[in-house]
Amino acid sequence: MSLPRPGAAQMPAWDGDIPAAHRLQDDLSRQLVLRDDFARPLRTIAGFDVGFEDEFAMTRAAAILLDADTLEILDQQVVRLPTRMPYIPGLLSFRELPALLDALAMLKHAPDLAFIDGHGIAHPRRLGIAAHFGVVTGLPSIGVAKKILTGEPRMALHEMRGAFTPLRSGKDQIGWLLRSKPGCLPLVVSPGHRVAMPSAPELVMRYVGKYRLPEPTRLADRLASRRDPSVPDADA
């Protein structure tokens, strides 16, 4: 595929320097584009997720490319790499992104829009995995997370399917709580890159079927976790 790989300045080897990683997050967050800048109509979408093997010694990244209209699977790839660093709160993207970038590079072509299992700008430094992925690849991206990392909902969330309410950090809106399925915990949806805040929940709901997760990240999650495809998903 034609996408350039990020340079060392954007994805440096991990050397244990946490303040330097924070400075890089701040720099990259200033490069994010939070307006709609994706292909219309969407032709292809992709889901990305990361799991771990061998007691976290091995990172397993999954990428799945789908037709944006039919959700036909066009390609899927799994990459296994030695885990590059320990878990450090707020720096998850530095741990997971190298394997995700390799999985992206193996797809037969880049998607028009990437759905990442994790946060976009709904992150203490406004650079969760979906935002980091988007800014270093240049791809439009959305974060779809299962729980709040930072921020507070503006108001109570209705139980109706498709209901959403702003997630705020101080005066700033950083994402949405989205009720993708009644009776289930809400998703945390936030723009990553080249997607506007108002568009993020609508784009996610466009690809929600009978499960809590939208199809791109649901299918990527199954690949990343090596779950038996014959076993139904849990919606909790």
Q: Characteristics of this structure?
A:
236 residues, alpha+beta, archaeoglobus fulgidus dsm 4304 fold, 9-stranded mixed beta sheet, 5 helices, globular
What does this 3D model show about the protein?
There is one protein chain. The protein is an alpha+beta fold and 236 residues long. It has one domain (24-225): 2-Layer Sandwich (archaeoglobus fulgidus dsm 4304 fold). 23% of the residues lie in helices and 26% in strands. The chain contains five helices and nine strands; from the N terminus they run H-E-E-E-H-E-H-E-E-E-E-E-H-H. It has helices spanning 18-29, 92-106, 129-137, 199-206, 215-225, and strands at 44-53, 58-67, 73-82, 113-117, 141-145, 152-153, 164-169, 172-178, 187-193. A nine-stranded mixed sheet has the order 3-2-1-4-5-9-8-7-6, with helices on both faces. Helix 2 crosses helix 3. It is globular and about 45 Å long. The mean pLDDT is 92.
